[in-house]
Amino acid sequence: MEAELTAVLxxxxxxxxxxxxxxxxxxxxxxxxxxxxxxxxxCSNDYLGLANHPEVIAALQRGADDYGxxxxxxHLINGHARAHHALxxxxxxxxxxxxxxLFSTGYMANLGVxxxxxxxxxxxxxxxxxHASLIDAGLLSGARLRRYLHADPSSLDGGLDKHPQGxxxxxxxxxxSMDGDLAPLPALAASAARNKAWLMVDDAHGLGVLGxxxxxxxxxxxxxxxxxxxxxxxxxxxxxxxxxxVAGSEALIETLIQQARxxxxxxxxxxxxxxxxxxxxxxxxxxxxxxxCLAALIRRFRxxxxxxxxxxxxxxxxxxxxxxxxxxxxxxxxEALLQHGILVTAIRPPTVPAGSARLRVTLSAAHSEAQVDxxxxxLGEVAT
Length: 384
Ligand SMILES: *Cc1c(COP(=O)(O)O)cnc(C)c1O
Known about the structure:
By secondary structure, the protein is of the alpha/beta class.
C-alpha cells in the first residue's frame, strides 16, 4: 500500500495538483497569522465579517453556559434543543417558507435532501459547475444524473426531454462558488414549471450577501417558494458560524425528518452554535451597512483589476476569481503573492475544469479600502 499511494502522490505533485494545509492562529479576519507569519488574506467566505463579531462570540459563550458543549445525540433522539428549534423558526421566517430544518454541514444537507427526494426511477439535472456536494448527492441518490451546460436553460431543456418519467429535480448553485456568477433562476424556474420538474437552489454564497436584508439570490430575482420549492443555505459563510439548513413546505421538511439519512444518523449541532447563529441572523438582517461596504470594495477591486489588465469573470458578488489557466501558474502567482504578505489560494482541477485554474479572490465587509489597494498593488507586481 505505501509504495502505491506514494507513487500516486508523487504524480499529483508533478502535476502541480498537490494540496497542503496552512495552520492559522487566531480568528478568521483579514489580517491573520498563518504558518506563524502575518498575512492579509483574501480567501475566506466570511463575507460579512461575522465569524469574529463580538456579539456572535458572546452569544456562543452564553449558549455554552445554558446548554454546555455537545448536543449529546441526534435530533430525533434527544439532541433537538430549544435553541435549534428557535433558529429553525427564524430561518423559515427569513426565507419566507413554512419551515426550515438544520443540518450539521452544507455537504450533509445536500446529501440528505437529494437522497430523500430521489431514487432509481428518478432523474436529477445539475449545472456542470454545481458544488461537489450536489454532484455527490446526485450520484448517491441512484437517480439518473445529467449535467447540463453551465447556466444554460436550453441545455437543461434538452436533458428534461430525454427523461420524461419519474420525479425530476433540477439542482443549481444560486451563486457559483468558484466563478461568482448567478444562476439564471427565472429561466430555470420557467423550465421546471413547463416540465413539471422541481427546482432546488443551494444558496451558500447568496444568503446574507444578495437581496433585501441579505435574503439571498431568490430575493434578488424576486422569486418565491412556489418557483423554487427547495432552498438550501449554509451557515459557515456569510453567517460566520457553522452548519446548514433546508427551507420549504411542511411536507418537504417532514419528508426530510423521516428520510434524510444525513439528518437522522448524526449528532445535532452544538446548541450554542445555534444561539450564535441566531445572533448572526439578527445582525445580518439589521441594516445594510455591511453589504454596502462589501459592494463598494467589490467595485474598487474590479476597477483596479481592470486597470491592471487582469482578466476578471462576470461576477458582481464577493467571489472575484482571476483565471490564469494552468495549475502551475496559479500556484506560482499564489506563492509570489504570499511573498508580499498576501494570501489568495490557487484553485485547481478537479475543483474547477482543467485549464481554468484560478486565484479565487474573495472580499469581505471586514476588509478596508487600503487592504484592497494592497492586494491590487501586489497583483500588479506578480500577476501582470
Ligand atoms: C460551502 C458549500 C457547501 C458546503 O457547505 P458546508 O457547510 O461547508 O459543508 C455546499 N454548497 C455550496 C455551493 C458551497 O459553497
